[in-house]
Design a protein that fits this description.
Length: 283
């Protein structure tokens, strides 16, 4: 069965899904996106994802391609047409097609594409059992990382460098030696007092939807959360480390730049949060 994409008003086989070469998404990465996990045909945290998408569009003075109601319908239909049970929905809005000029066009119709593919969540859970290795990379991104923009060149270069260093994810580090976030994830540590630390969303990072969810799960479990930056050295001497994102859920980190975190196996707090996050998805 060929996969079906949604492209500017039509559901089409992926092989026939095209956008114009003058689309500003293609020309300038003048676009925003969301990635939503689908668990047993249900979209996880759909409304916070739509809130963030609308915020990103507002921040870039971009018009919405449609209202939220119809967008929900398109996304549900895409899951149905692709017969997805566990999957990953990708949606992207760009400023649309216009003659190439850096300044905003006087008139353009926003472009909206969405795809849905299978995501092996059992595999994600299995990976969480062993934990992952990560490597630090300098954070060379811009000053508006709160916007979920498709301009991801620094992120993909960091991820690739991490992969070449044998890591699963890049831990981005600012000029002062503090961890900002991952190339496509949010970073957390567990201190020796059992407190969770993760950088504040006021501090030029993306407000991860999984981050917010894990924060509220932690509160329910009476685990203290401090939204405060931590340095690479703090991470190296932390009790535990983990990351969060829609596709990785909560994922224990057992090695940073070749050095063990804790005893080099997923710690009890991270393991509890992985369980609790899957329970939340299955609720
Ligand atoms: N930070 C960055 C830079 C990201 O790209 C992502 C995922 N898109 C995240 C964090 C995690 O966000 P979420 O939990 O909403 O997937």
């Amino acid at each position: 069965m060929s996969r079906i994409a949604y492209v500017n008003g039509s559901y089409v086989p992926t092989a026939d899904a095209f956008v114009h070469i003058n689309d500003r998404g293609f020309q300038f990465a003048d676009g925003v996106y969301e990635g939503i996990t689908v668990r047993r045909k249900q979209m996880i945290d759909l409304e916070p994802h739509l809130d963030r998408l609308w915020r990103s569009m507002r921040e870039l003075k971009m018009d919405a391609p449609m209202a939220r109601g119809p967008m929900r319908i398109v996304l549900r239909e895409l899951i149905r047409r692709n017969r997805i049970s566990d999957g990953f929905l990708y949606l992207q809005v760009t400023r649309g097609e216009a003659v190439r000029d850096h300044a905003f066009p006087e008139f353009s119709i926003p472009s909206f594409v969405a795809t849905c593919r299978r995501l092996n969540l059992a595999g994600v859970r299995a990976r969480a059992t062993g934990g992952i290795a990560v490597s630090t990379q300098p954070d060379i991104r811009w000053g508006r990382c709160d916007v979920k923009s498709t301009s991801l060149l620094p992120n993909i270069l960091a991820k690739q460098a991490a992969r070449e260093a044998g890591g699963f994810e890049a831990v981005l580090v600012d000029n002062d030696g503090y961890v900002t976030e991952g190339s496509s994830t949010n970073m957390w540590i567990v201190t020796h007092n059992g407190v969770l630390k993760t950088r504040s969303t006021e501090d030029n990072i993306l407000a991860g939807i999984t981050r917010a969810r894990v924060k509220s799960i932690a509160k329910k479990l009476q685990i203290q959360v401090e939204e405060e930056s931590f340095s690479v050295n703090e991470a190296l001497s932390a009790q535990e480390m983990f990351l969060t994102s829609s596709t990785s859920c909560a994922m224990p980190i057992v090695e940073l730049d070749g050095q063990k975190i804790g005893d080099g196996t997923p710690g009890p707090v991270a393991k509890r949060l992985v369980e609790a996050y899957f329970d939340f998805m299955d609720d």
